[in-house]
Design brief:
Distance between the termini: 27 Å
CATH class: Alpha Beta
CATH topology: Rossmann fold
Strand order of the largest sheet: 3-2-1-4-5-6-10-15-14-16
């Protein structure tokens, strides 16, 4: 699929890009992978990992800059859109900046991909885009809608857009596991609410979902990976069994449980062995056999949230994962 193709990843120096690039180079042998991002220092650090590999290119640019995107996308076949302002408090205190990157940036990318003849685009979404309660989630919901509608916006062009959605990425920069590991020697771990649950996914699973989307998409689908849930109190026990848990109260914009498919989305959602697929409600695209394939329609009112998930991760499973990935937790 991606063999000998040109791939560009926006926000490519982030946690996802640092997993996607080496995995894709190894599995597909693309012609080139272009890292498009605005932080020169992160590009410099990432470039050291791929010294001597002519397939990896680095391109300084911002998704807010439409002209720069047009230049970067010249000759590109596939795009992964990972660029975002995603820290919830940062978005709340800098709402204009969050909108410029997450919404205006999405519009710029859609326009540029259509005009430059990109074949397939997969945008990364988040559980926070489902029934959003904070600005980050609201902008990502808007972004998801833009990418879904981009398939009709493309008109007679062949560019197609899809979205992948998943929850907490274990061990990524800014996530709770490296935070707990950094303070566990103090003997106290702060938790906002002892009822809180979260979805758990590895970066490798996230990359594989993007590969699947490229292979399966017709245009307009939102892919939701089936992944286990975990209580945050259990997560804390796995990281620091001896530490005391301190309940500090839920923060502004924080949900008690994560949701990836809302009851409203259930009308357009189909189930598959390893994922769900929310089909676009516009143009009756949710009824087309080429998008549904062998999927089974979920029940009306179906709600895929971290508290009603049939699959749960145990302390022992998380401990084993931490032991196997200790060298890279929090580094990407």
């Amino acid at each position: 699929m991606l063999h000998n193709k040109s791939i560009l990843i926006t926000g490519g120096t982030g946690s996802f890009g640092n997993a996607f690039v080496p995995m894709t180079l190894a599995k597909y042998n693309p012609k080139r992978v272009i890292i498009y991002s605005r932080d020169e220092m992160k590009q410099w650090d990432m470039a050291k990992k791929f010294q001597g590999d002519p397939r990896v290119r680095f391109f300084i640019g911002d998704v807010r800059d439409r002209e720069r995107l047009y230049r970067a996308l010249d000759g590109v076949d596939y795009v992964v859109h990972a660029a975002a302002t995603k820290i919830v408090p940062t978005a709340e205190y800098n709402p204009f900046e969050c909108v410029k990157t997450n919404i205006n940036g999405a519009m710029n990318l859609i326009d540029a991909c259509i005009d430059k003849g990109v074949k397939r685009v997969v945008a990364l979404s988040t559980d926070k885009a489902s029934s959003p309660v904070n600005l980050y989630g609201a902008t990502k919901l808007a972004s998801d809608k833009l990418f879904v509608a981009g398939n009709s916006y493309a008109g007679g062009h062949d560019t197609r857009f899809a979205v992948v959605r998943y929850g907490n990425v274990m061990g990524s920069r800014g996530s709770v596991i490296p935070f707990f590991m950094s303070i566990r020697d103090k003997g106290v771990l702060p938790i906002t609410d002892d009822r809180m649950t979260r979805f758990m996914i590895s970066l490798e699973q996230g990359v594989e979902l993007v590969w699947h989307a490229f292979d399966d998409m017709v245009g307009g689908e939102i892919y939701v990976k089936k992944i286990p849930s975990m209580k945050v109190t259990e997560l804390a026990k796995a990281v620091a069994p001896e530490a005391k848990i301190e309940i500090i109260g839920i923060r502004p914009g924080e949900k008690l449980h994560e949701q990836m498919i809302s009851p409203e989305d259930s009308l357009y959602t189909y189930e598959y062995p390893e994922h769900f697929k929310i089909l676009p409600a516009i143009h009756n695209w949710d009824t087309t056999a080429e998008r549904i394939k062998d999927g089974k329609k979920v029940a009306e009112g179906f709600d895929y949230s971290s508290n009603n998930n049939p699959e749960w991760m145990s302390c022992a499973e998380l401990e084993a994962w931490i032991a196997a990935n200790k060298h890279k937790i929090g580094s990407i």
